[in-house]
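User: Okay, second chain of the day. Same drill as before: sequence in, structure tokens out.
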Amino acid sequence: MKLINTEEAVGHVLCHDLTQIIKDVKKVTVFKKGHIVKEEDIPVLLSIGKDHLYIWEKQEGMLHENEAAEILYGICKGKYIRPSDVREGKIELIAKEDGLLKIDVEKLHMINSLGEMMIATRHSNFPVKKGDVLAGTRIIPLVIEKKKMDEAVKLAENKALIEIMPFKKKKAGIVTTGNEVFYGRIKDAFGPVIRKKLEEYDVEILGQKILNDDPEAISQAIRNFISEGAELIICTGGMSVDPDDTTPTAIGNVGARIVSYGAPVLPGAMFLLAYCNDEIPILGLPGCVMYAKRTIFDLVLPRIMADDKITQEDLASLGHGGLCLSCNICTFPNCGFGK
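Assistant: Same drill. Structure tokens below.
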């Protein structure tokens, strides 16, 4: 790379894209990397403030920003992801399918700590749709040492930093408990909320069973749904510590492995997660799901729908960012909840 006067640039090759910015109007690429400067280009270059230009001179052991950006894209790219065009050394990663976004946060931090390069992403474990921009990569200088890019590749360990886990079609059964609902003293408010949440995904609802607080009846309803082919069980009601709230006991009696009863999320502290036969998730939803706009349910459901196994450590990590501010106008997921 060599710096020369623009008026002496005719016949030379530009080593990076040149843009023109007009406030509130546009930002366009006037000349692309690799363009051979012509006589008629000089007035245009001067009009965008380019009195000097960097022209390309290939140096051993150095990479141009576009070459390096391609390497960063290769480090990041996982399944169901495509690249944008390279512009000014930047490549964006774009979703090819709806699904759950997974980021290797530890390696992302390690590579960003190398300096002179950057990868900026969305938050991990949140749903994305086909066409969404997931991340952007670029090199900070115009050229970078090849050995530095080799170091980034080594840190990645041949595993993509960014992946999409497509959502799966599932069959679900809803078990609603509580004497007050079973005996008709109050109308069930859980069912409509759960159905609306599941409408965002490809879910076939096998049915909703409304029961009293008999733990054996609750356990049997769960077993029946599983025998009918349910791949997800959602239990509502009976999740507090009152003596009449027997849903956690009933879930345990099915033989399910309890991952956690309780989560550091508000709303949603009394959430229960279990797996039956180590593959069928059973969710015990607290009462807040009935009335709060966003709860623990919104944070775990995308992972459940992508068959992303959730651990106790995963739930514990939700404490940082686990406080929903219950804003008058909800902007979730474009807020800090769950992040």
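Residues 118 and 211 are 54 Å apart (CA to CA).

User: Thanks, on to the next one.
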